[in-house]
Fold this sequence. Notes:
Elements: H1 2-17, E1 27-31, E2 40-41, E3 47-52, E4 61-66, E5 73-76, E6 81-82, E7 88-92, E8 98-102, E9 108-111, E10 119-120, E11 126-132, E12 142-149, E13 155-169, E14 173-179, E15 187-193, E16 199-205, E17 209-213, E18 219-224, E19 233-238, E20 245-247, E21 251-255, E22 260-265, E23 274-279, E24 284-290, E25 295-302, E26 308-313, E27 319-323
Antiparallel strand pairs: 1-27, 2-3, 3-4, 4-5, 6-7, 7-8, 8-9, 10-11, 11-12, 12-13, 13-14, 14-15, 15-16, 17-18, 18-19, 19-20, 21-22, 22-23, 23-24, 25-26, 26-27
Amino acid sequence: MKRAAALVLALSTSALLGGAGAATLPSRAVLSGTCCPGVVWAPDSSSLLFLDGPPVRSVTGIYSVPAAGGAVTRRFSSVAFFSPKLRWAVRPGTGDTTTLERLSDGRKFTLPTRGSDVTWTAAETRLAYTRSDTSGNFDRRASRVYVADVFGAPRQVSTLYGGGVSGWIGDSTLLLNGKLNVAGRDRDLFTLDTRTGTRRTLKSALGFRGVSLSTDGSRVVYTITFDSAARNGLWIQNTSGGAAKRLESFGSYRWRDASRLLVIPLIPDGSPHLLREYNARTGVWRTLGDLGDQVRQGDWNVSPDGKKISYLSARDGNVRVVNLPE
């Protein structure tokens, strides 16, 4: 009976993942010699950007390599946190002050972020950041959320405990997660209109992981673990509200566009990683193929145009690029 049950489970898992006989997706190495973890896509999807320096490169900086492979060139001579559209360089200081520079004209302004991450709107005309307490249990630490227009003064819009900013929806609404009451058990995932103060709770749980907005902000995906069986899982939900849908999968995920979510399911048997796609508009899964390889430490990204992925190979340590099926 145990062998029969195991066989049924194996067959059910295979059918769910759709991985039986999946074709291997061709990939090409664009960076070799175990260089470089943490690459990101350029806004136009034509190249990948990465941090490098001696001894491989003569000068430390941000370098670029074409997505099709080719010569490496230096894109930025200084090291900073660059905005997604590469319009701004963000340079935290040694104290509270962070300097933000508009790259088109070199104009600068400062914000008292205490070195925290800056989250930009899609237009990169507004931003948000948190200033958190630095001591005590994380669940009880206050994180004060601020917003600011570029070149403008910051304004506090919320206080959370054990949470922070998950992203912008449009130019005025934030997606936040955390506790509003320090003594509370559950965190809320909620939207906050920073102009009117209107708040909409999407989901409550002990904690949220991997919160990620779709490219247009209309949907959010997140993982809940270590909670009740009814709450645990990978969930997808419209940010305008409504019921969340639990996806019958678990693993690493990235948005491809406004409605398609790419998932690499967790299959801990050493086999090549499988790339699956869920269409939130139609509710349909499809298997794109396997990588013939594994992704090292979850280091993979989707190009802004949704046509390619890059990943750090677990097999040879090279950065590889895959063209995705339409």
